Amino acid sequence: MATEKGINITIRGFIPIDPHDLKGHRAKLDAVVEAEGGKLEALTEAGLRVEEFRADPVTRRGKTDAAEGSDSKSE
Fold first, then answer.
1. Which sign does the torsion angle of CA 68, 10, 14, 32 carry?
2. Is 28:47 a contact under the CB 8 Å cutoff?
3. What tens digit of pLDDT does each residue of 48-75 get?
């Protein structure tokens, strides 16, 4: 089976909010939504404090291998 090597990245952080500042609170929520869509720089603009950062090397089965394996079982 073919495998792929990569780096598994885990980031845990905290964005301080003030619920009494509705405009600022909304801007930080919008930044989180943007980050979920791939715009990670929005988190730094929102004041993200990184509490934990891990980068671990990993080896995983390739995505195409799983599909090929299921096809060969059905034959």
1. negative
2. yes
3. 999 999 999 999 887 765 555 544 444 4
Strands (E) across the chain are located at 3-14, 49-61
* CA dihedral of residues 33, 36, 38, 44 (deg, nearest 10): 70
DSSP letter at 20 equals T
Alpha carbon distances (Å) from 18 to 22, 24, 32, 74 = 8, 7, 15, 56
How far is it, in rounded angstroms, from Cα 16 to Cα 46?
A: 9
Q: What is the pTM of this model?
A: 0.59
pLDDT of residue 17: 87
